[in-house]
Design goal:
This protein is an alpha+beta fold. It is built from 8 helices and 22 strands. The strands form 3 sheets. Strands 1, 2, 3, 4, 5, 8, 9, 10, 11 and 12 form a 10-stranded mixed sheet that branches. Strands 13-15-16-17-18-20-21-22 form an 8-stranded antiparallel barrel. The protein starts with a helix and ends with a strand.
Length: about 525
C-alpha cells in the first residue's frame, strides 16, 4: 500500500513539474513579448537606440542561459550599409571599437546577435543549424507606435526559449546550433544579409545544413504552423511531421517560399544555396499596423510552437545525415534570371490614326491584344523580348463631309510581332524593365462601320504590312507576373479612302504570366 502511495506521489510530482515547466515557458514568452513590444521601445526601429535596448534585453537572456558567442567573446555583430550600393545593398561588418566613429560621421550602425550551442560530436560539431528571428520593427509613424508584438517580438521570444531548451539538451546535439537575433529586417533583410556574408567570408556558410527563420508565430489560435521551403532539404517533411506529433500541433507545409509580397531572413541564405525554412503562424495578426500589441498574442500557442521547433531543430542537429535536396532552392530566391522565359500576355489600351502632313489625329478607340511572349536573357541586365500577338484595334474615323464628327469607326485584326531589347534593373522576382525595338504587323481583316447608317464595309485604310517603333516600361513584382505599358508608332501607312498617308498610334497596359 505504501509503495502504491509513493508511486502515486511521484507521478503527481512529475506531472506537476512538467505542467510547471510548460507554464513557466509560457509565462517567460509572455514576459519577453511584453518587454519587446512595449510602447517605451517606440517600435524598435532598425538601428535606433530603442532597437539597441531590445537587443540588450535579448543579449542578457542569451548570456544568462550560457550561450557562447560564435566569434571571439562578443555576440554582437555590428554592420553598416554601403551607401553606394542602394540597388543591391552590401553590408560591411565593423569592429565594436569603431562603432562610435562611424556614428559620429553620420552612419547608422546596426547590430545582430550571433551565439552558438556547440555540438557534441567530434566531427558533426563543425556542421551548423542556424535559427534566427529579427527583433526590429517599424518604429514611430505619424505619431503612432508600431509595437510589432507578432512581427516580430513573437519570433524573438520563441528563439530565446528555443535556445533555453536546446541548451538543456546540448549533450544530445551532434551538430552545433547557431542562434541569431537579426536587426534591420524590415528595411531590406540587412541583418541576415550581413550574417550570411560574414559566414561566407570566413568559410562557415558551406557547413550550414539548414537555416530557419522564425517570423510572426504569435497567432496560432487553433490554426496551423506554416513551414515554407520543405523541398530544399531531404526528408524535411517527415521531420516536421514527427516534431508536430510530439508537440501536439497542426502544421502546413509548402515546398517553397512563394509569397510575392515580402520575404524573411531566409532569403540571403537561400540565395547562397543553403536549405531554408520560413516558419510562421501567418498574417492573421494586425500586420504592420499600430494594433499589433502584446495583449493579442496567443501565448499558449506560442509555447506549443516553441516545443515543436525545438523538437525539429533537435532532430536536424542529431541525425547522422542531413542533406540538401540538390538544386531545390526556391525560385523566388534565385539571383539569376533564367536564360529563356516564356508565357502569355494580355493587353488593353487605345488606338488612334494619325493623318500625316495634317494636324489631325482621330479620337481614340479600343486596342486589345492576346498572345505569347518570350524573352532571351543575355545577362542580368540585358534581354531580348519577342511576342506573337493577335491584335484587334479600332479607331474613330471622320466622314468626308465632317472631319470632326467621328461617326465612323475603323477596325482591323492583325498578327503583331514586336521585338525589343530590354534593360533590366533588379533581380529575378522584382525588377524594372525598359524596352526599345520595332514591330511588324500583318493585316488579317479590316472594316469601316457607319454607326448612323448601321453599315459595315470591308475597307483597307492601312497597308497589309505595317512596321514601326515600339517601346515599353514594365515592373515585375513577383516571379511569374509582370505588368507594364507598351507603345506602338507605325512608320508606314496609306489611305485608300482619302489618299492621305495614315499611320496608327497605340498605347496599351499589359499583364504577362510567365510559365
Amino acid at each position: 500500500m505504501k509503495n502504491r502511495i509513493s508511486l502515486i506521489l511521484c507521478l503527481s510530482l512529475l506531472l506537476l513539474g512538467v505542467g510547471t515547466r510548460a507554464q513557466n515557458q509560457q509565462q517567460r514568452l509572455e514576459n519577453h513579448v511584453y518587454f519587446l513590444a512595449a510602447d517605451s521601445l517606440n517600435g524598435r526601429k532598425a538601428g535606433s537606440p530603442d532597437a539597441r535596448r531590445a537587443m540588450r534585453y535579448i543579449e542578457n537572456e542569451y548570456r544568462a542561459m550560457g550561450l557562447r558567442p560564435l566569434w571571439g567573446d562578443d555576440m554582437r555583430q555590428y554592420f553598416i550599409q554601403e551607401i553606394d550600393n542602394v540597388l543591391s545593398p552590401q553590408m560591411t561588418t565593423i569592429n565594436s571599437d569603431s562603432v562610435s566613429s562611424y556614428e559620429q560621421r553620420g552612419d547608422i550602425v546596426y547590430c545582430n546577435l550571433v551565439a552558438v550551442i556547440p555540438g557534441s560530436d567530434p566531427v558533426l560539431k563543425d556542421e551548423y543549424v542556424v535559427v534566427g528571428a529579427h527583433y526590429d520593427h517599424l518604429g514611430l509613424r505619424n505619431g503612432k507606435v508600431y509595437n510589432g508584438a507578432d512581427d516580430n517580438a513573437s519570433g524573438s521570444a520563441a528563439v530565446i526559449e528555443m535556445a533555453r531548451q536546446l541548451m538543456a539538451r546540448r549533450s544530445q546535439l551532434a551538430r552545433s546550433v547557431i542562434i541569431c537575433a537579426f536587426d534591420a529586417e524590415e528595411i531590406g533583410l540587412w541583418g541576415s544579409t550581413a550574417l550570411a556574408s560574414q559566414m561566407s567570408s570566413c568559410g562557415l556558410l558551406s557547413h550550414v545544413t539548414m537555416m530557419m527563420s522564425i517570423d510572426m508565430v504569435g497567432w496560432l489560435k487553433g490554426g496551423k504552423l506554416d513551414f515554407s521551403g520543405t523541398a530544399t532539404l531531404k526528408d524535411c517533411s517527415a521531420m516536421i511531421e514527427e516534431a508536430a506529433q510530439r508537440s501536439g500541433i497542426r502544421v502546413s507545409k509548402n515546398r517553397y517560399e512563394t509569397s510575392p509580397f515580402g520575404a524573411t531572413d531566409t532569403e540571403p541564405f537561400a540565395k547562397r544555396d543553403i536549405p531554408t525554412l520560413a516558419v510562421t503562424t501567418g498574417l492573421g495578426s494586425p500586420y504592420h499596423k499600430p494594433e499589433d500589441d502584446a495583449d493579442l498574442i496567443d501565448y499558449a500557442g506560442m509555447s506549443k510552437v516553441t516545443d515543436c521547433l525545438v523538437a525539429l531543430v533537435s532532430t536536424m542537429a542529431s541525425r547522422e545525415t542531413v542533406m540538401a535536396a540538390t538544386g531545390k532552392i526556391s525560385p523566388k530566391h534565385k539571383n539569376k534570371l533564367p536564360v529563356l522565359e516564356a508565357g502569355i500576355v494580355l493587353g488593353i489600351g487605345t488606338n488612334r490614326l494619325n493623318f500625316c502632313n495634317t494636324a489631325f489625329i482621330t479620337k481614340p478607340g479600343v486596342d486589345a491584344q492576346v498572345g505569347l511572349t518570350g524573352q532571351l536573357n543575355f545577362s542580368k541586365h540585358l534581354g531580348l523580348q519577342v511576342d506573337a500577338l493577335f491584335d484587334r484595334s479600332t479607331s474613330k474615323y471622320p466622314p468626308q463631309e465632317d472631319l470632326l464628327a467621328g461617326s465612323l469607326s475603323y477596325g482591323q485584326s492583325s498578327l503583331l510581332v514586336p521585338a525589343q531589347l530590354k534593360l533590366i534593373l533588379g533581380n529575378r522576382t522584382a525588377n524594372f524593365q525598359v524596352g526599345l525595338g520595332g514591330f511588324y504587323s500583318y493585316l488579317l481583316r479590316s472594316d469601316l462601320t457607319d454607326h448612323e447608317k448601321g453599315v459595315t464595309e470591308r475597307v483597307r485604310i492601312l497597308p497589309t504590312d505595317q512596321y514601326g517603333l515600339t517601346w515599353s516600361l514594365s515592373v515585375r513584382l513577383m516571379e511569374k507576373i509582370s505588368m507594364g505599358c507598351s507603345f506602338y508608332y507605325a512608320f508606314n501607312g496609306n489611305n485608300d479612302k482619302f489618299s492621305i498617308d495614315t499611320k496608327r498610334r497605340s498605347s496599351l497596359f499589359n499583364v504577362s504570366y510567365l510559365f
